[in-house]
Write a structure and sequence with these properties.
Keywords: Glycosyltransferase, Membrane, Transferase, Transmembrane, Transmembrane helix. This protein has about 80 residues and is mainly α. The chain folds into 2 domains: about 35 residues, no CATH class; about 25 residues. The chain has 4 helices and no strands.
Length: about 80
């Protein structure tokens, strides 16, 4: 059983984390911004998702589709 878990550890440390190890090396050799490219991608995804969400909220608010009666939702009453 120990060999199984050591095999999983080897897989993650030597194979699956290889791109992140390369990004870590890039930080010291080239650029901090390039080394954090994964973080920048996540930030952009969150910004786009937030903008889309706000656009949809505005669309429903402008169409007056929401039932704003205080008894419309059980958690408000």
């Amino acid at each position: 059983m120990r060999d199984f878990f050591e095999g999983i550890a080897w897989l993650f440390e030597e194979i699956l984390f290889l791109p992140f190890n390369m990004l870590r090396d890039v930080e010291f050799e080239t650029s901090w911004f390039l080394a954090n490219i994964i973080n920048w991608i996540f930030v952009l995804v969150v910004i786009v998702a937030f903008a889309y969400w706000m656009k949809q909220l505005k669309k429903f608010n402008d169409n007056d589709e929401e039932n704003r009666d205080p008894t419309a939702h059980s958690f408000l009453g």
